[in-house]
Each structure stands twice: as C-alpha cells, then as structure tokens.
Amino acid sequence: MDTILVVNAGSSSLKFEVFSVEGSLARQIKGKMEGIGTAPHLTIKSAGGDRLADEDYAREAVPDLPAATRVVGQLLRERHQGQLIAVGHRVVHGGPDHMRSLRIDEKLLRELERYTPLAPLHQPNNLAPIRVLLEHQPQLAQVACFDTAFHRGHDPMADHYAIPAHYFDEGVRRYGFHGLSYEYVAGKLAEIAPDIGGRVIVAHLGSGASMCALSGGKSVESTLGFTALDGLPMGTRCGQIDPGVLLYLLQQHGMSARELQDLLYKESGLKGLSGLSNDVRDLLASEEPGAALALDHFVHRIGLNAGMLAAALGGLDAFVFTAGVGENSPVMRERISRKLEWLGAKLDRRRNAVGELLISGDDSTVAVYAVPTDEELMIARHTYALIAA
Ligand code: ADP
Question: Which residues does Mg(2+) bind (predicted)?
Fold first, then answer.
C-alpha cells in the first residue's frame, strides 16, 4: 500500500496524517505530538477514531520540532505498514509568486526561508520538518502546500496597502491565508451545490478566523492581509486595528516590538476582550460580561466584514460556515446569520440545529451552508497530484 504523509507543524505541536493511495486517497491515521520542549505527548488515532498510541516522552527526548520529526518518523516506520511515497507539508507562506503547491528541493527551501520575516511565528516551524527530511531522506519526495497560494489570483490593485508603492515590491502586500481550507470548501461547494451562483463568502471560524470572497470558485478578497493578524478578531489575535493604536503603544507605553507582537498575537482577540478565554465554548457557557462583550464583538465584526466582501462580489449568492466554530456551533451560526438577513439570508432553525450542509430556508435568497473543512486532505491531494505528474 502506497501512502502519503501530511505534516502540519506549529510552534509546539506536530500534527500528521497518513493517507493511503489506492486509486483514491483514504485517511488511515491522524496523530499529534503536543507539548514539544515542555511535556511531549503523542496521540495517534485510526481514521475511525480508535486510539492507536497515547504516550508521554521525556522533555529531553523531544526538545524541539526537528527532534519531534525524527521521533514521529521512526515510530511511523516501525508501526505503520505501507510504503511512504511522499510527504506533503502545510507551509503558511509561499511568497508573492507561488500560485500552487510545489515539489521541494534545496533551492525552494532556501527561497521559503527568505519569507520567514513575513510570518515569523509560523514559517520557521513549517520548514523545520522539511529540512530534517531533506537531510535524512533526500530521496523522499516532499511537497510544500501554501496557505497563501489560493489567493494569488487577486487583482494586484486589491492587494496593495496605500503606502509608497515600493513597499509592495518589497513584499509588503495583502497575502491572505487559510487558503487550503478555502480551496477545499470551494471544491466541496461545487460538488454539493453546483447550481448556486458564483458569489460566495466563506467564513473560516476556528481559533484563527478569516473570511474569503469567492467569485466563480476563485478567491478575489480575504480579510487576512500581510500577516495572519488582520481582519476578524480571533482566539488570541487582534484582527483589524487602527495602525495608530500601534504607534500609541510604541510611543506612550514604550513597548518593544517583541511586547507588541505578544500582545497582538497572544493576548488579544476573544481572550483579550473577555479577560477569560480564547475558546468560544467557554465564552458561550460564561455569565461574565466580558464573555458577552467578546462574542458580541466577534459577531459584529463578522457582519461588517461580510458587508465588505459582498461589496467586493457585487452581491451574494451563498455564505458558508466552516472550521471549529462554523462547523460545530448552531448558536453562533444563528447569531451571525442574523447579521446577513439584510443580504437575503434566512436560516432554517431545524436544519441549523441538526447540522445539515444546507442550513438556510427554502425562501432564503442567499443559500447558507455549514461545510466541514479538510485542509489535510487538500494537502494530500496536491501532493499526490504533483508526484503522479
Ligand atoms: P484551529 O484554528 O486550531 O484549527 P479549529 O478550527 O479546530 O481551530 O477551531 C477551534 C475553535 O473552535 C475552538 O477554540 C472553539 O472556540 C471553537 N469550537 C469548537 N467546537 C465548538 C462548539 N461546539 N461550539 C462553539 N465553538 C466551538
């Protein structure tokens, strides 16, 4: 059995999935090494949800991502049957030019390393396992799948910031992220609703959150820009903010760049607003005023951004919820859908409560969907397509 390994490496975790490639792609296992460098813990589950591994490791055994890559690689070789034919990696930043996934070699890896200043919290982690595998198994095919690639068809005018144009050439432009999720959802929507019109907004509402305007299945606008901080407030990230606030914090609070980075990435969003939690479930369960403020603000900003994206599309045919909040919370879907009523969206309460794919009523002029995303399957598909070619 030929297999493809999908790797999604973050700052303290390494998520991986194995797909078999017998005619079509089928998920075999899902795993996660968490607590890298602190309290490493590995879990592996079968596609059906059975627990296959649940192990603690000494901190010294898994001090960093390269070590985690080696440990997971060794374990998969020992315990997992199948012939690994390629590894597909999630890479947050593909820079301004790459519109599709690419086979990795030393030259591409060096180029991708140059984009680290554009995504300092994600890019080095994404690239670390690639480097390890390139050194230890140079013959193994590796593919980089970019979160930015799906948005590269934007009109360049839309991707500019209104600062002197030479900064755009230097790379200071709107990139947009969550592209693998949007690409998957766009494909799924074409399958389940081939006849809906071509003007669609997809809301990826997880711990990271953004929205994307699709015209004829292609991204034309995203709420995320130069970094994954822009647009909607997220679990711990601020979302859109007046740059004057940053100047104020630098000048009046004497903050360093590092302090500002920590504030905007780790202490803001739902967590900062509520003073309680970054998790929508906690906020829904809480009676604290901070929880209500954070959720009200989240819903408000999604409504405002929906208006902006509908303007980019010149109207709206469908609105799609996806990712953690979008897939699992009928309450949040209902609250957000109320902000879309002026555009013609009308939720069907029963469909929404049971979680059908189509959750709007038959009299809704905007079709509303809740579609589970699958970024890992998207990576496996890109990887397979590239090595098959
Ligand atoms: P990530 O961006 O880490 O991949 P997910 O897409 O898994 O995130 O989304 C995680 C978030 O989804 C959680 O932080 C939580 O706020 C939210 N979430 C998950 N399940 C529910 C639920 N049943 N109700 C409300 N929110 C949920």
Answer: 8, 375
Which CATH number is 194-370's, of 3.30.420.40, 3.30.70.330, 3.30.1360.70, 3.40.640.10? 3.30.420.40
CATH topology of domain 2-146: Nucleotidyltransferase; domain 5 (3.30.420)
User: 143-166, pLDDT tens digit by residue?
Assistant: 999 999 999 999 999 999 999 999
DSSP for 13-73 reads -EEEEEEEEESEEEEEEEEEEESTTTS-EEEEEETTS-EEEEEE--GGGS-SHHHHHHHHH
Question: What pTM does this model have?
Answer: 0.95
Q: What is the pLDDT of residue 245?
A: 98
CA 279 to ligand 1: nearest atom? 16
The residue contributing the CA closest to ligand 1 atom 12 is 324
User: 155 C-alpha vs ligand 1 centroid, how far in Å?
Assistant: 32
Q: Is the CB of 329 under 6 A from ligand 1?
A: yes
Is the distance from the beta carbon of residue 323 to the nearest atom of ligand 1 less than 6 Å? yes
Residue type, 299: V
Q: Is the CB–ligand 1 distance for residue 280 below 6 Å? A: yes
